[in-house]
Amino acid sequence: MATNDELKQFVINKIVKKSTQQGLKLDTIEDNFSLTGSGLFDSMDFLNLINEVESSFKLVVDFSDAAPEEFTTLGGFIMNCK
């Protein structure tokens, strides 16, 4: 089973890749970084990210008990991966 740190690094790598593709440079990526509000991930990108995490780590991203604003941040996303 993946650790939260491994999951977080995986998602951070995806954030860095998306920002580079869009010509942006991010200095730091904190737990409160908004995956959808940042403009880097549209709804399809966000669904693809969920799919990649689930298939790469053989887990389920469960948002049933979280408020939407909780799981769209880096920290909230990681906490909802089980």
Number of strands: 0
How much of the polypeptide forms β-strand, as a percent range? Answer: under 5%
Low-confidence stretches: none
Q: Which second-level CATH architecture applies? A: Orthogonal Bundle
Oligomer type: single chain
Q: What structural class do the secondary elements suggest?
A: mainly alpha
CATH topology: the name is Non-ribosomal Peptide Synthetase Peptidyl Carrier Protein, Chain A
Work out the radius of gyration. 12 Å
CATH class: Mainly Alpha
How many individual domains?
1
What's the SSE pattern?
HHHH
- Which sheet architecture does the biggest sheet show? none
Helix content: 40-55%
Please report the distance between the alpha carbons of the first and last residues. 9 Å
- What is the mean pLDDT? 90
CATH superfamily: ACP-like
